[in-house]
Amino acid sequence: MKPALAGLLGCALGVATAQAADSPLRGKTIGYVLTAKNVAIWQSADGKVECPEGINDGPREQFKTLYPADAGVKYKFAESQLEREGQIWNPTLDPEPKLHFKEAQGTTAIGLNLDGKVGPNDFTSPDGEKGIDNQMYRVLGCVDNYRGPDGSYRHFIQDYMRKFNYNRFLVELTNVDDLTNDDDVTVTLYRGKDPLMVDTLGDYTPGSTHRIDFRWGKSFIYQLKGKIQDGVLTTQPGDVTFPESQARGVPYLSVRDWRVKLKLTPESAEGLMAGYTDIERYYNSLGQNWSTHHRSYGAEPMTSEYRAMYKHADAYPDPQTGRNTAISMAWEIKFVQAFILHEERGEQAISSVQGSSARSEAVGE
């Protein structure tokens, strides 16, 4: 071989080797860390399509309706403030005739088709996909706390995620041949314990290292099967408990038939996660995360939401009463690429999540 040609080949091989070494896909593995999570709320330009009656009243406004100051009644503390707080912590399904809850209207919503059907109560996604299951949107779509860009819940979720290492949510893909098309990959969920890395502008950057919490986070380790098609990762459904990013209150959320749909790149992943949320667990977490006072910031009427959740519940009926106990829900999520460190791999206890064979029965198919 001529020296010049050998030199060119050597340079080419050197470049290829350097690119492989710099690639985040190492040993058929790539990891991601969660950087953003919001309840999936579709919003029209002026909000009139989904909320023609406007945004819901919050706890303070509802209190004034229930206990009006101009009614000529001198309310006792136990018969007003304490009574109302008791109703918030121990809600019933009895009607609240003095209160009107404004549900999201229309047929458009963000989410996934969870049951594989196109039903009369299903939505159509903004890009035209039918059969979208996201009944929680009916409940929260006109609650200011969850609407963008200024909803208080959105703000604090992101603020806590940036400030605290609490309950870092990690996703690792293994057995990956190609980030564009691969019909058999393994998706493992972990709780991490390291901070997010940001640049000088405060934007999250890829390439940070995150240790897995094997000591206290074993209950958050799940493994699902997935596939990548045209750069989009989808997973088989499974019952999952994942860590929440808030630094107080309930540290986790359990979702049945959970799955993701994520657009993958070597630097990031972005898309949706969805499933059926247990209503009692979710409502209890609302109260523990924030007090009634703090929910007034985003005008969130919890007792009205509770009744609406059961009204629109669409899965997992109680075997005795027949009432559905879970409601379909979706979140918009973003990740950046991360190197996930298995420093205690020998102590790892993976809970395999099988595709839920009972799903059809649970949703009444």
State mean pLDDT (0 to 100 scale): 87
Biggest beta sheet attributes: 8 strands, antiparallel, barrel
Q: What structural class results from the helix and strand content?
A: alpha+beta
Our Rg estimate from Cα atoms comes to 24 Å
- Give the low-pLDDT segments: 1-19, 346-365
What is the tally of helical segments?
A: 9
Gap between N and C termini: 69 Å
Give the SSE order as H and E letters. Answer: HEHHEEHHEEEEEEEEHHHEEEH
**What share of the residues lie within helices?**
10-25%
Strand content: 25-35%
| Widest sheet: strand ordering | 1-4-5-7-8-10-11-13
Global shape = globular
What's the total number of strands?
14
Looking at this protein, list some descriptive labels.
single chain; 365 residues; eight-stranded antiparallel beta barrel; 9 helices; 14 strands; 23% helix; disordered N terminus
Architecture overview:
With 365 residues, the chain is an alpha+beta fold. The protein is built from 9 helices and 14 strands. It has helices at residues 3-22, 59-66, 81-89, 136-140, 152-163, 279-289, 292-295, 302-312, 359-362; strands at 30-39, 123-124, 130-132, 168-174, 182-192, 208-211, 222-229, 232-235, 238-243, 252-264, 268-278, 315-317, 324-341, 351-352. The strands form 2 sheets. Strands 1-4-5-7-8-10-11-13 form an 8-stranded antiparallel β-barrel. A two-stranded antiparallel sheet has the order 2-3. Helix 6 (279-289) runs antiparallel to helix 8 (302-312). The termini are far apart. Mean pLDDT is 87; it is low at 1-19 and 346-365.
